[in-house]
Amino acid sequence: MFKNKTAVKLDPNTTDTLVGEGSTFEGKIISGASIRIEGQVIGDIDCEGDVTVGEKGMIRSDTIIARNIIIAGTVNGNVQAKQKLTITAKGKLYGNLSAASLSIEEGSVFEGTSRMEGAQDPSSASVQTITLADKQSAAIAEK
After folding, report:
1. CA torsion, ordered 114, 143, 140, 88, to nearest 10 deg
2. How many whole angstroms separate alpha carbon 18 and alpha carbon 56?
3. Where in the sequence is the domain holding 71, given as residue range(s)?
4. pLDDT along the chain (143 residues), means of 10
5. Is 1 part of any domain?
6. Distance between CA atoms of 114 and 126, rounded to whole angstroms?
7. Residue 106 located in a structural domain
């Protein structure tokens, strides 16, 4: 009646899960492939692939862990990118970040602390605190 179930290894380079615009998901997401969020997620994400938050996507989470994270929407919570974290010009991150590589585009919002981690010795990892007030002061100084 029941067949033997064999574990399927998902490719982290493919997007397996989509939370579409107008959808809300509450709970923890654990994925072996990449995830795209265009709707709303309330809960933690643990992903072997990439997490992409679209412009209309919104996440409220304690922790998001993924290989690469791209934020074009809004994230409230801490993020850990094993490789690269990108906050696009329309992206907003309200929380702490940890990443091996970081790209924050002009016009984005980041409020929290950052920790660069990766191939280097963890004892030499740098910590920098950036606040919205710092970004606004820098913008005024440029004018």
Report:
1. -40
2. 13
3. 15-142
4. 53 71 94 94 96 96 96 97 97 96 95 82 50 56 57
5. no
6. 8
7. yes
The beta-strand segments (E) located in 7-135 are 15-19, 24-26, 29-31, 34-37, 40-42, 45-47, 51-53, 58-66, 69-71, 74-87, 92-94, 97-104, 109-116, 127-130
What is the C-alpha to C-alpha distance for residues 103 and 139, in angstroms, rounded to an integer? Answer: 18
User: 56 in a domain, yes or no?
Assistant: yes
State how many domains the chain has: 1
Q: Which amino acid would we find at residue 87?
A: I
pTM > 0.85? no
